[in-house]
């Protein structure tokens, strides 16, 4: 039952870095909160659950983790490159953003498939035949399935809904999150960051008055 983390030092090193990387990934969530910008459920739920599951799996040296790590590294390399370009005031085509979300959805489907395969393997080969626990499989498939539902909902609202097709999109307030409080605006009416901030400030003021 020797784990790939113990057997291959290179894989073990990158797995260790992957687990540690989940901490700095919380940084953009902190910045959103400090800037008092809207924080959608998908954003913080995804970051927190991945952090907890990654650390839990590392303690077990989970065998299937190699698949999840490789997928995550690949998708995040594309995603954070896109965010870096946006931060540098470059404007990648909208199709790139759609591609990234599609890659994330594909990652969730593959993740569920791997867990189903791992469960079947344990049933046929025996529970001690692979370095993965039944509890880990249950947690992992629940996590991946919930991600799929949330990302599919986000994809529909952002790219396929009637408002999205009309050019009305959720207000984008950060490089890695979108305000989706059920409100859409015509993106052509926003000329810069100051317009977004003014609009958000107005929404906050209205909420305070309503209270």
Automatic annotation (TrEMBL):
Regarding the membrane, this protein is recorded as: Multi-pass membrane protein
Annotated compartments: Membrane
Q: Where are the transmembrane segments?
A: 41-58, 64-85, 97-117, 137-156
The record's top EC class is transferase
As recorded in UniProt, its EC number(s) are 2.3.1.199
- Give the record's GO biological process terms: fatty acid elongation, monounsaturated fatty acid; fatty acid elongation, polyunsaturated fatty acid; fatty acid elongation, saturated fatty acid; sphingolipid biosynthetic process; very long-chain fatty acid biosynthetic process
Please list the reactions this protein catalyses. a very-long-chain acyl-CoA + malonyl-CoA + H(+) = a very-long-chain 3-oxoacyl-CoA + CO2 + CoA
What cellular-component terms does GO give this entry?
endoplasmic reticulum membrane
Pfam families recorded for this chain? ELO
InterPro entries linked to this entry: ELO_CS (IPR030457), ELO_fam (IPR002076)
Key words, A-Z: Fatty acid biosynthesis, Fatty acid metabolism, Lipid biosynthesis, Lipid metabolism, Membrane, Transferase, Transmembrane, Transmembrane helix
Q: Which GO terms describe its molecular function?
A: fatty acid elongase activity
Q: What is its main location?
A: membrane
Q: What family does the entry list?
A: Belongs to the ELO family.
The protein's name: Elongation of very long chain fatty acids protein
Taxonomic source organism:
Anopheles maculatus
């Amino acid at each position: 039952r020797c784990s790939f983390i113990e057997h291959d030092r290179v894989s073990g090193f990158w797995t260790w870095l992957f687990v540690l990387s989940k901490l700095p990934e919380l940084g953009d969530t902190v910045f959103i909160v400090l800037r008092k910008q809207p924080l959608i459920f998908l954003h913080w739920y995804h970051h927190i659950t991945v952090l907890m599951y990654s650390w839990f799996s590392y303690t077990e040296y989970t065998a299937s983790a190699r698949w999840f790590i490789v997928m995550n590294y690949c998708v995040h390399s594309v995603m954070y490159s896109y965010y870096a370009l946006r931060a540098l005031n470059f404007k990648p085509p909208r199709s790139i953003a759609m591609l990234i979300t599609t890659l994330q959805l594909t990652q969730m489907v593959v993740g569920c498939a791997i867990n189903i395969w791992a469960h079947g393997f344990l049933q046929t080969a025996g529970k001690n035949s692979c370095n993965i626990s039944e509890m880990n499989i249950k947690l992992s498939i629940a996590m991946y399935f919930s991600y799929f539902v949330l990302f599919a909902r986000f994809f529909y609202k952002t790219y396929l809904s009637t408002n999205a097709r009309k050019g009305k999109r959720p207000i984008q307030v950060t490089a890695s999150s979108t305000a989706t409080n059920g409100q859409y605006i015509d993106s052509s009416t926003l000329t810069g960051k100051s317009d977004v901030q003014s609009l958000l400030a107005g929404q906050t003021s209205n909420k305070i008055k309503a209270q």
